[in-house]
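Chapter review. Work through the record for TRASH domain-containing protein before attempting the end-of-chapter questions.
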Amino acid sequence: MSLVVGCAQTSSQPTTESTAAVNSHCPIMGGDVTEDGGRAEWNGKTIGFCCPDCEPKWEALSDEEKAEKLAAADGGHADSHDHSDHDHS
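C-alpha cells for TRASH domain-containing protein:
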C-alpha cells in the first residue's frame, strides 16, 4: 500500500460566478434583471438583462443607443415597455 501526498496550488484572487450588474432593469425590455438573464460588458460596466434573448439585441445597438436605453432603464421606466413580442418563460 502506498500513500501519495501533494499540495494543490490555489489562486489568491476571488472568483464569482456572476458579476453584479450596474442596472436593476433590463435596458431592452425593462423587466427586472435576473441571474439567468445574461450579462454584457460595455464601457467598463456590467449590464444585466431580464432574459437571454435581450443580450443579442443589446449587442446590435450602437453605443449611443445603448447609453439611451441604459439611462431609460435606470430611470425606472420599466412599466412603459411593451412585452407582447417577448416571452420570459
